[in-house]
Amino acid sequence: MPSAYEQLLAATIAHVDDLKRGGVKYLPVDSESLAELNRPAARKAPIDPSSHTKAVAPAESAKSNALERPLARAVSSEGPVLTELIVDASVALSPEEKDAEMARIRERALACVKCPHLAKSRRNVVFGVGTIHTELMFVGEAPGMDEDQQGEPFVGKAGQLLTKIIQTMGLDRDKVYIANVLKCRPDTPGQRTGNRKPTLDEMNTCKPYLLAQISVIRPKVIVALGATAVEGLLGKTYGIMKLRGNWQDFNGVPLMPTYHPAYLLRNQSLTEKRKVWEDMLAIMEKLQMSINDKQRGYFLPK
Ligand code: SF4
């Protein structure tokens, strides 16, 4: 006979499943509930002092078994740490395991309150969009106001331009994966509009989620959109003008830094558009995509 708690949990899961089937993607949750959800479960199992990998809290253990995670997961004495979300590159993942891993990471991010000021001000955690079964991943800096409202990265004007660029490459937005280094919109206290650049501290706090996403997707190419994304990913601050167009290495994955689409909206010159397009051509070559003459000639002076 299930306990009252188990019955309530089953009813809650059924209700959330119904909402999901009805097309609801995100649920508003107040910051107190988020803090509670993010609290590590009470530890009942004793910790084996001889073992480097500590005993896993029962709730975590049950979750792990349910998803049959193909890894041993290290857990700190304070409870699960974010780095445990990162999948070991030597472990092969089936498409189903990738889906399960990404769902786990998403679940953690949606309940995250590691930056209390951002958890308080955000409307949505903007986790990522597209397919995780892709070779190409775009990474921006942080959600802006539109993204915060819609819970999806790159949906404002700059996002629409990024979508056009992806389509011009012969792909679709749902054939690639798009995420940001920071998953919550940087707050702008006292301002009703406008966005601010995320700080390095904020990006570093959030970066394990991105690393975990990359560890599951295993893209063949990462595109860093703009100077702040490059700084968040590579820690390099010496200028997107110098870096763009030059392949970098991100933990063994080729990374192409290029301008943020918002820059192209501010600077409409053919020369700047061509530079970004050349970066896309280089990416297409790296991914061995077919490139036609029309694509090769975009934004060249007539
Ligand atoms: S920005 Fe990242 S680390 Fe900070 S609260 Fe949001 S999800 Fe958590």
Describe the structure.
This protein has 302 residues and is an alpha/beta fold. The protein has a single domain, classed as Uracil-DNA glycosylase-like domain (Uracil-DNA Glycosylase, subunit E, 3-Layer(aba) Sandwich). 44% of the residues lie in helices and 8% in strands. It contains 13 helices and 6 strands. Strand 5 and strand 6 (253-258) form a beta hairpin. The protein is globular. The chain starts with a helix and ends in a 5-residue tail after the last helix. Bound molecules: iron/sulfur cluster (SF4). The site of iron/sulfur cluster has 13 residues, from helix 5 and helix 8.
Strand order in the sheet with the most strands: 1-3-2-4-6-5
Q: Going by CATH, what is the homologous superfamily?
A: Uracil-DNA glycosylase-like domain
The main sheet comes to: 6 strands, mixed
Indicate the proportion of strand residues.
Answer: 5-15%
Output mean pLDDT: 83
Which term fits the overall shape?
A: globular
Task: Tell me the number of structural domains.
Answer: 1
What is Rg? Answer: 21 Å
- The span between the termini is 77 Å
Q: Regarding CATH, which class?
A: Alpha Beta
Q: In CATH terms, what is the fold-level topology? A: Uracil-DNA Glycosylase, subunit E
Bound ions, cofactors and other small molecules, one mention each = iron/sulfur cluster
Strand runs, count: 6
How would you classify the helix and strand content by structural class?
alpha/beta
Order of helices and strands: HHHHHEEHHEHEHHEEHHH
Fraction of residues in helices? 40-55%
What CATH architecture would you give? Answer: 3-Layer(aba) Sandwich
Low-pLDDT runs = 41-81
Quickly count the helices.
13
